[in-house]
Amino acid sequence: MKNNYFLNSLKIPSKLLMYLESKGYLRWMNDEIHLQFMYWVRIGKRLNLNKPKSFNEKLQWLKLYDRNPIYTQLVDKYEVRRYITNVIGEKYLIPLLGVYNDFDEIDIEKLPEAFVLKCTHDSGGLLICKDKKSLDLEEAKVKFNRWLKRNFYFNSREWPYKNVEPRIICEEFKLDESSTELKDYKFMCFNGEAKCLFVCLNRNSPNGLNVDFYDMDWNPMPFERHYLNSKSIINKPKNFKKMVEFAEKLSKNIPFVRVDFYEINGNLFFGELTFYPGSGYEKFKPESFDYLLGSWIELPTKQF
């Protein structure tokens, strides 16, 4: 199986690059060289770090030169809870059931029938358990032991992750009114101003995830980024105004950050903060919107 993955990756440069990175073969590269190489493979263009203009280019610049120490706390799925509590209040956090340094510390018997396990230090280290009677504990342990060993920073040189302590948190399992999924409401914030957002929906549909962009008046925006549009218009969430208010509070004095929320049975919950959506390697269709969103990022003074 592993050999097949390697052989298939040879046909697609971006997959080959990610395969080599997953094996640690590219860690010798410094951050700038790595980003230049990755950008060329994923976007198909040379990365202009001297005069970046597009959204994707500016995200790469921010990885290198915007190094506010608080970002490490804000990407840590456990430590960010203190920030959220201080800025908007603990009531907007999905209830925490436990935090663990190792999978063996988890007492499954004491957990409810449904719950969510997440790694604190990466993106993608996630297990959604809807029925613990059917949970394969050995398989889950193997996954988390592997995830806890990885340093997500090396994937795309998102430096805030470099020194996050690897842990596991357990949160309550939640569904929205559809009883099938949670829609994500993701606000794109520029120096404390929410200028547009997108909604993630239909994760469990046969055709997979859809991503729909809206302006701040809830008008659909005519572009796609990596994922297809759902071709529909969903209702504006009841807590939309509060989402905007909180997104702007949480993103104050940050050149760019995405602030995510859920609305569950009329109640608002915080999701996460993301500094580099898609690691800055997801193409826009049409490309002009890459430059429109890029024009909204005011780059700060370089921090080395």
Question: Topology, pairings included?
Answer:
Blueprint lengths: L1 H8 L3 H10 L8 H13 L11 H11 L4 H6 L4 H8 L8 E5 L14 E5 L6 E4 L7 H13 L3 H4 L11 E5 L11 E7 L2 E9 L8 E6 L8 E2 L14 H11 L6 E8 L2 E8 L9 E2 L2 H8 L9
Antiparallel strand pairs: 1-4, 2-3, 2-4, 5-6, 5-9, 6-7, 8-11, 9-10
Helix pairs in contact: 4-10
Could you explain the architecture of this structure?
The structure is a single chain. Helices cover 30% and strands 20% of the residues. The strands form three sheets. A five-stranded antiparallel beta sheet has the order 7-6-5-9-10. It has a four-stranded antiparallel beta sheet with strand order 1-4-2-3, covered by helices on one side. Helix 4 crosses helix 10.
Please write the string of helix (H) and strand (E) elements: HHHHHHEEEHHEEEEEHEEEH
Strand order of the largest sheet: 7-6-5-9-10
Compute the number of strand runs: 11
Average of pLDDT: 91
Return residue spans where pLDDT drops below 50 for at least 5 consecutive residues: none
Distance between the termini: 42 Å
Per DSSP, what share of the residues sits in E-state strands of 2 or more residues? 15-25%
Q: How would the global form be characterised?
A: globular
Q: How helix-rich are the residues, as a percent range?
A: 25-40%
Largest sheet at a glance?
5 strands, antiparallel
Q: What is Rg?
A: 19 Å
Structural class comes to: alpha+beta
The total count of helices amounts to 10
Task: Write a brief caption for the model.
The protein has helices at 2-9, 13-22, 31-43, 55-65, 70-75, 80-87, 137-149, 153-156, 240-250, 288-295; strands spanning 96-100, 115-119, 126-129, 168-172, 184-190, 193-201, 210-215, 224-225, 257-264, 267-274, 284-285. With 304 residues, the protein is an alpha+beta fold.
